[in-house]
Amino acid sequence: MKRSSYPKRYLLSAFITLLIFFLGISLGIIIDNMRVSYVENLNAQQEINFEDLQLQSSYINTLKSENSSDVCSAYQAVIERAVGDLSDSLAEVEDYSQNNRINKEDYDRIQKKYILDNIRYWFLVKTAKKQCRLNTTTILYFYDSKCTICPNQGVILSYFKKIYGNNLLVFPINMDYGKDLSIVKAIKNQFNVTSYPSIIVNGVTYKGVVGKEELAGILKKDFQEANSLNSKDEK
Known about the structure:
Elements: H1 2-63, H2 71-83, H3 86-99, H4 104-132, E1 137-143, H5 150-164, E2 168-174, H6 175-178, H7 182-191, E3 198-201, E4 204-207, H8 212-234
Parallel strand pairs: 1-2
Antiparallel strand pairs: 1-3, 3-4
Helix pairs in contact: 1-2, 1-4, 2-4
């Protein structure tokens, strides 16, 4: 009787092991789908914001001949609302990227779209800055997961983002996903980005980790120049 019970115990143990295994896989799939859904929602909101910005840009162009003094202030308000959250979402997107294991193709596509959205915003802000002399500094931040010192640059950028708020717009470019995108290659070639981390601050490339003191000086100079130009325009 005792011997005959052994096979049943083995079968029961095997069943429980398989059940735990499949529950683990199912839970992993659910969590992964939640991650993908989160970033898809993020990208969808960015798409709406970008379309809003495009319409605002067209509106500005139609009013140029009328010399409307309110257009550029309205433009700045739209930019602040639309892209102010990009830096805040950087840490969350990076975390999902590091932990994602399932649905790799879908997640790669989402990450690439996130990069393209950042570049489109960067283009638009550059245009707005020229047209309206906005007191805004833009930073393109290139990094990848193989770069062990890149997180240090990310921490420093987050520090200054908290100080300057929406006057400093940081656009992260994750090269794990952006290396095959033609527009990313074009920007890298134009600004001679050959290593990570690299940041482009209003058209000037800085390679390696740019420390707090150095970046503070760069940003201070850029904002002073913008204020100087605005003062001349007012006169």
